[in-house]
Amino acid sequence: MFTRAARAIIPSAAAAVPQNARGMATLQEMKRRIESVSNMAKITSSMKMVSAAKLRRAEDAMKPAMAYGKASAALPELVGEPEEKPETRLVVAISSDKGLCGAANSVIAREAIAIMEEDKAAGVQTVIANVGDKARATLTAKGVEVEHGFSEFGKSAFSFAQAAYIADILLNEVEFDIATIVHNEFVNVITYNTVRKSVLGPEKMAEQTSAALGHYNMRGDRHLMENYASFHLANAIFSGAREAAAVEFAQRMSAMDSASTNAKDMIERLELQYNRTRQAVITTELCEIIGGMSAL
Amino acid sequence: MLRLATTLGRVTATSSATFATAARVLAEDPMAAGPKDIPEKLTLTLATPDKALYENEEVYCTLIPSMVGMTGVLPGHVALVTELKPGVVVVQKESDGPKEQYFVPTGFAVVNDDSTLNINVPEAVPVADIDIEAARAAQTEYTNAFSAASTDEERARAQIGAELYGTMVLAASQDVFA
């Protein structure tokens, strides 16, 4: 009776395996399952360790990048939002190349799509560019055309040269009034925010006649503000990507942590079940022996 | 550093539209905003992508290689936006203190009304760390490349390189700002 009850709990895959009357196969099946779950737990917990180490490095790389990005954004903040409605928008969605980091990548794709839909309603033409493989996969799956995709940035921290390369290609190949950079903002190891950062296109930046900048002395050629906008695009992509990397590792760490906890729970449950089944088998055998004895 | 410089050079070269603000700025009186309280120190942020050399630190004076030549920035300096040329950024924390010198390839500097100075550069190297022989070799290489260049782009690249390394050699060989 116990044997049958225990068997019913085991998923159908295990039940489909031919079993003898004593339920030995069931025990073997369960043992195998416990082993595979504990192997998985080993993988997830080591991935957690690796992510923790990488997070520390990413956080170290993020700090100077944040100071750099903040210093670069000070002037564009004075310039302010565009005076007239932009006609074309470039969306730069920054995600990671690898998954297993919770919702960190899918929120980026979702935000990019949200911007696109807002723009569609407002009559703004949108061009989607993306950094990192994961958001591109999601966007493409949802039927969004990603015109410029950049990925495989290697194992070391995202470099300024990489950001400058991306910005250079985007500035040369896409005409835009405003660029919106979508990335995850690092709050702490558990929390992050998905943010949009606006960078005026070079021409718009130069045309903008903002009152806050009125008395600034401009030293350089007539392309000064255009050049600043180009430089700032690279800087914003750079600091955004470094921040997104820290979020990626923090999220992978917590995803792997909960996966390890889940695996541990599952192992506990399976072991309990395994022991109960084992005891039931022993009891049945004893009953059979005693029954046979008394029949003599 | 070389690749960075040429990339930024290319970014610079892509600009094309007119620049409307400059004329307007020149027509306005810089003191129109009225006299302000001038702080005693300059708040400096000198940031490279991989290291913030100064982050909101109070300093006495900074010299920056602006497009129109070396510009000294003291507290109360008029608000300013400038692109940087290859050259040396000199930071002096105290009026009688030592002068720290960093070679920068390019970048931007913004002085705000509240005597804050933001400098963003893709790279900054302490002048003492420059390998003058390597810089000289690179300068020769680019000078040769300039004479051998057949297209405008090649010529522009070679010119940027030659200017960059030429300034670097100068900065390293003579202690101009000590």
From TrEMBL, chain A:
GO molecular function, one term: proton-transporting ATP synthase activity, rotational mechanism
Main location: membrane
Family matches, as CDD domains: F1-ATPase_gamma (cd12151)
A Pfam family this chain is assigned to: ATP-synt
Keywords, alphabetical: ATP synthesis, CF(1), Hydrogen ion transport, Ion transport, Membrane, Transport
Gene Ontology annotations for the cellular component aspect, listed alphabetically: mitochondrion; proton-transporting ATP synthase complex
Subcellular location: Membrane
Family of the protein in this entry: Belongs to the ATPase gamma chain family.
Protein name: ATP synthase subunit gamma
Protein's organism: Thecamonas trahens ATCC 50062
UniProtKB/TrEMBL annotation, chain B:
A matching Pfam family: ATP-synt_DE_N
Main localization category: mitochondrion
Coiled coil: none
Keyword Membrane tagged: yes
Key words, A-Z: Hydrogen ion transport, Ion transport, Membrane, Mitochondrion, Mitochondrion inner membrane, Transit peptide, Transport
Residues annotated as domain ATP synthase F1 complex delta/epsilon subunit N-terminal: 42-115
InterPro entries reported for this sequence: ATP_synth_F1_dsu/esu, ATP_synth_F1_dsu/esu_N, ATPsynth_dsu/esu_N
Cell compartment(s), UniProt: Mitochondrion inner membrane
GO CC annotation terms, alphabetical: mitochondrial inner membrane; proton-transporting ATP synthase complex
Record GO terms (molecular function): proton-transporting ATP synthase activity, rotational mechanism
Membership in a protein family: Belongs to the ATPase epsilon chain family.
HAMAP family: ATP_synth_epsil_bac
Name used for this protein in its record: ATP synthase subunit delta
Native species: Thecamonas trahens ATCC 50062
